[in-house]
Design goal:
By secondary structure, this protein is α/β, with parallel strands linked by helices. Helix content is about 35%, strand content about 20%. It is elongated. It starts with a helix and ends with a strand. It binds S-adenosylmethionine (SAM).
């Protein structure tokens, strides 16, 4: 079978199964099997695909038609121009989450400008926390943008932290991202001088031997300049209306914030206030309907300069504020 025929049949099967973006999905699966890029694929439509590759391709097409996300079949997703390993243990990074990074970088630059300081373009001296890091995509993308900043990334899921660790290593930022198994900030002592590893913070049933990486002893405290988070924010009552790719294949802990969805934000915001330096920044991703429940939480006296950023679909997606 040649490439054109294999692709045509794959596309037809995915269209029949009501798979969204069926052409792209079939292309990505064929590229994955052949280990080629799209330019090569379209330059060689007559090339014969080996029987083994045809078999592998249609196996993947069948799994995609049955609802498995393309990213679980290829094992990767691009985010912020970087390739991330993904497995069913982590949320597949979404394009709208890139707005969290844009807002965070803008706010950091503005803060320096307002303080009359030179722009810290490399993030020298900055301590940044990513709460609910999943694949590590936010912390890792920011670590690439701020090559002198130091990061703490927490997740309640040891399996997710194993993926984040591999992604941090792949992008050569593992020495600056300290991964902790933690319920929100629990494993991060407030204001501790010279942070040392907490025994409880070492992942217990971890697939990889140790997640916690001892922070450099030069850190003066665990108060942060910036806290970013894309917490689980879907309501369990919305579960029946979710696409099967999401509901049946992505981790519940990454999806659901509670019955309504916004339940985690109250603790996240209260604890962030305790963990930020004065003038520290909080940047949160919001669910499509979270804003009315979450924005009032920033009316508390410790917050100022509250701002909302819409995503490309016009949905209020990022909520940011500064700690007084
Ligand atoms: C929506 S996903 C975001 C993952 C990643 N930051 C991203 O943007 O793609 C939320 C992550 O928060 C983690 N999580 C859920 N509840 C948590 C909690 N109480 N404390 C820490 N992490 C939590 C989940 O395991 C999941 O990895």
């Amino acid at each position: 079978m040649d490439i054109r025929t294999a692709l045509k049949q794959g596309i037809a099967q995915l269209r029949e199964a009501d798979v969204p973006s069926f052409t792209l999905a079939a292309e990505l699966l064929l590229l994955h099997v052949l280990g080629r890029n799209r330019t090569w694929l379209y330059a060689h439509p007559e090339e014969i695909v080996s029987d083994a590759d045809v078999h592998r391709f249609f196996e993947l097409i069948n799994r995609r038609a049955a609802g498995e996300p393309t990213q679980h079949l290829t094992g990767k997703q691009e985010f912020w121009g970087l390739e991330f390993e993904v497995t069913p243990d982590v949320l597949i990074p979404r394009p709208e989450t890139e707005h969290v990074i844009e807002v965070a970088l803008d706010r950091l630059a503005l803060r320096e400008l307002r303080a009359g300081r030179p722009q810290k373009s490399a993030g020298e001296g900055l301590e940044i926390a990513d709460i609910g890091t999943g694949s590590g995509c936010i912390a890792i993308a920011m670590a690439k943008e701020l090559p002198a900043a130091n990061f703490y990334a927490t997740d309640i899921s040891p399996a997710a932290l194993a993926i984040a660790k591999r992604n941090a290593q792949r992008h050569a930022v593992a020495d600056r991202i300290h991964l902790l198994e933690s319920n929100l900030f629990d494993a991060l002592p407030v204001g501790a001088q010279h942070a040392t590893p907490q025994p409880g913070a070492i992942a217990k049933n971890a697939p990889a031997p140790v997640f916690y990486q001892s922070p450099a002893t030069s850190h003066q405290s665990l108060h942060f300049d910036l806290i970013v988070s894309n917490p689980p924010y879907i309501g369990r009552r919305e579960s029946p209306s979710l696409p099967r790719e999401v509901r049946d294949h992505e981790p519940n802990a990454a999806l659901f914030g509670g019955e309504e969805g916004y339940e985690l934000y109250a603790d996240l915001i209260t604890q962030s206030a305790k963990h930020l330096k004065p003038c520290g920044l909080l940047v949160l991703e919001l669910g499509h309907n979270s804003l009315p429940a979450v924005q009032p939480l920033l009316d508390a006296p410790e917050w100022t300069k509250v701002g909302v950023t819409n995503d490309l679909a016009g949905i209020p997606r990022v909520l940011a504020a500064e700690r007084l």
